[in-house]
Amino acid sequence: METEKIFSVIYNFFLRKERDGKKSVEADRMCFLQVIRRYSDFDILNSSLMVCGISLPLPPKKLIGNMDREFIAERQRGLQAYLDSITQHPLICTSLFVKKFLDPNNYSANYTEIALQQVSMFFRSDPKWEVLEPLKDMGWRIRKKYFLIKNKEQPKERFLLSWVSRTPDSSGTPYLSPLLFSSTSESSALLVRPFGERGSLRDQICKVKPKESHLKKYCNPKKSQGLELEQIQLFGRQILESLKLLHDSGLFFGHLHASNVMVDDGVCRLVDVENGMLGVPSVLRPAFTQLRKINTTESIDVFCFGHLLYEMTYGRPPDSVPLDQFPSAPHAAVVSVLQSILSADACKSGMPTVPALIQTPNLTESVLRQIPSRLKEVLKSAKGSLEKRLHEEQRMLHQHRRLTRAQSHYGSEEEKKRRKILARKVKHGAAVFLSPPGSGASSPPTCPSSPTPPPATGTPVSLSL
């Protein structure tokens, strides 16, 4: 009776597993996760996700009759639908709550504690820095933590410290630019930059406080609003000029989105440019990996810019890409640019380049000016590693899709029926072939107009051709 309280929900998805920054044996292959949980576990997960402000389809509790088999089967279907809804949400599926629920063995580490320990070790060599408070869940990355710190020599100023666990794709250099302080070890990196009280561009679009949880800020913002055309043109031009400067130097960004753009006095500044050297994955990687035309770091930056431009225009990121239809907007010129990047035709035939996008009129100058030569060499190496990884993942995804289509076709009712008919024909043909001579049961009927066969004995019959 006790076992009937346990629900086994199987959810199939593509996962690149990493354990403490190292690729696991199961990495880079399709896998099934079998989640065996009680209903109370689902209830705890749902309570943790209530900060999102989104109504999730968790089946209700039932105190009487909850051991009935039909009820258990119905609830299991409801719990599967609940898992589908949270894993298909682009932001909720990145939550540590969800990942621990689905795969607790690989997400058991307390990265906040690990980050605090390593930050303390870093600051022993530079005691002028002091941690004021951890900014819990401010960002979406599980292995990246933020802290509000101060410089003892400037006690009134506040700075943002970010700690990130390094991956196998990271580059081996302690030099990161442009930062107030940076340090790296074999397992992680520590970075200090000025803290913007107004937060990122996404914080300003959603009209939220930057220190709050990213789920609370971005899942269901109540006051989110797109920017005015003048701001879109200004920020768009500055971001494109920054990307062009990187590309002209043979470099890339790869992590462009509204949370990685800081705005101060009308000037955009890109942050987390070091992510390419640290080897951390892009938040949009699941989207552009499925598009085979996006196979270079430059095309990744253009695709990410399209997402960012959509969010600046409509006040929210697109639900999915490619887009067949675009919502009505007051800026027709912006919609035409979005169509050239995010439409189905653009994703199939190719997207415009950054120099082509810069031709939008009435925009201002760039905010980035110089790339150090040492940083240039490191980013070039990281660029090649990222593109190689992208090609491998696209190849794997393409093979998986072909296999899925073949399995679906082979298992269809029409195909099963065709194979049964073919098997009967083969069996009947074999029976005819193996039947003894003179057996009338298996011999085909003789046509009345058939010619008389030649005699078995006597003069041979010659045939003229």
Automatic annotation (TrEMBL):
UniProt region (Disordered), positions on chain: 401-420, 432-465
Main location: cytoplasm
Keyword Hydrolase (UniProt): no
Subcellular compartments: Cytoplasm
Keyword Cell cycle included in the entry's annotation: no
Pfam family, one: PX
Signal peptide start-end: none
Protein name from the UniProt record: Uncharacterized protein
Source species of the chain: Xiphophorus couchianus (Monterrey platyfish)
